[in-house]
Amino acid sequence: MIKEFAFLGHPDKFADLIADILVDRALAIDPKAKCAFEVMVKGNGSSLAVVVGGECSVDSRRLNVDTVVDVAALAANIATPPDVTVTDLVTKQSADIAANSQGVVGDQSVVVGMSVPRSHPLARVQRKELSLLPLLRGSRGWDGDGKAMFVGARLVSLSVGGKGFEPSNELEDFLADEGAKLNPPGRSTWAGGPAADCGMTNRKLACDAHGTYAPHGGGGLSGKDLSKPDRGGRLIADYLAGVVRDFVAGDAGVAYPVTVTLVYEMGNATPLVARLNDREFSTNAGFVRATEHLNALIRPYPELLGLALDGRPFSAVAQCHPWLGGSL
Description:
Blueprint: E1 2-6, H1 11-29, E2 35-43, E3 47-56, H2 68-76, E4 83-88, H3 95-101, E5 109-115, H4 121-137, E6 146-151, E7 154-160, H5 169-178, E8 181-182, E9 199-200, H6 232-252, E10 258-264, E11 273-276, H7 284-297, H8 301-309, H9 316-320
């Protein structure tokens, strides 16, 4: 298994963060809001240009788009340039899409969910991803940008932005334990964030999913409400994978990784396809029993979303960026 992880100060993840803050603001105004935001960011050190496009059922003037950059910059640990320009190109949701989706499933999508035992390398990588954040915040000169590269459960490379970056003792110990390189080659420092590169929403799809371990349906999470199956369907697929994983553990006495693929079409609350990855099962009989269990779990889209959220309030920011508020 190989996985890349990008921090919120990375230009693409910063664009994701802005889009998700806007989703949360729209849902705070109207819990049934339908939105799909696209964001582009680019800076040059002294200025930052942000373009927000897409569609939303809530008038974008009510979302205080001009203030979103400061909020996102604080969360991403980056300094806001003195000159920030935000261009609002958001329009109302298409009447055709609203009519065809029937307010339930707003698009076609293939989504892949996955659940692994706690001892699995992917689960260990996810815990290490979260543990890196406080170590970087405790270092000197970090500008919020960076990527971590994992092979198996081991961190092999950490590249972080910040002209005057100096790792804390705790971070150096962590890297030594992992046998990981910092800013290879050598210990060079570099300025990251939107000033270094252009960022756009949903360009870090594998980072937001399971790396190279599982397939990806191709749809992005960020900037979308739960009626979009790229996001809501992904939560459902992850939930179903967890339930089937626990069933398999009880049936076989062994905890296997479980991958669930769902295919949704606009306006249809039931997936056209619900499928397990047979390569993850040691016997065909076990695969058949798990498939029967999966098929018995299928419910209408809103009902499965409720089960996946388990009574917890949905936050777009928290779901895409778990260290900001918990994740499923």
